[in-house]
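Following the same procedure, sequence and fold were stored together, as reproduced here:

>
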Amino acid sequence: MADQSRFMLVVPPLMHNSPAFDRAAALAKASQAALHIVAFDYLEGLATAGMVNEQALDQMRLGYVERHRQWLEDQARPMRKIGVHVTTEVVWVERPLQEILIHLKEQPMAALIKALEHESLLSRLMFTPLDIHLLRECPVPLHFVSHMHHALPRKIVAAVDPFHSDDQYKGFNDRILCEASKLAITCNAQLDVVYAHDLSSISADEFGFSNGSAFFSSSKAKTLFDAQADAFRELAQRNGIEPECQHMILGDPAKVLCNYAQAYETDVIVMGRAGHRAMERLVGSTIERVLYKMPCSVWVVQE
């Protein structure tokens, strides 16, 4: 994370403090980085208020934006006292996604930090939340803060999946472990690596088996398991992960990762987000499920 010197903290339009402020300040101080706090304001009631004239409505909007800017300055003051260089910004915009992406293009950031906004399943089915849009489109590491145990993470878990027949995954797990290792070093935190493997999700013919029943009724299942274990150990050793910090667990990845994080009081889980070609498999089947159920914060590394 030392190759870039700024973090961006995105906060909601309502003036409400959240653990994301403390996490952003702690990470910025630990990595000797600057912090830019930005609020993308838009209040439906204020935006459509029936006023006598447009000038009065504009004054109300400007007044709210200024109050929010002053509020952000109040939150930034204690951060500056501990040595973090903090800048603040408030932007009035109805749909913040494009503005966030423009900001990231114009002002390169080490990571984007944001409090996770918990949405109901029905809401997510009807409307795609901003967090999911960011998960799919954010070009920099993305840190969703939720259920925070410590401002500066003490226990970090990297989730990897090293066993694929598709060449597009080559090197991706190494990047996940590289980001996780840099984060752990910055925070002086413990780093463990988990490979949650689920044989039920593997297509038999993908690995040369004529049918699933033959696969599971033969020694080929053990052969595949051993191959997965070898790939995992090689990946971990290549990235300097000690054997006692390597954990290969059988089961549904989302359930395994949530249970592991709960059992070991994990502060942050680092996961990979694949490109659009594999979006349905990796985001739809694992990251989105983990994002809203994980009992800790999530750090997402883009492919």
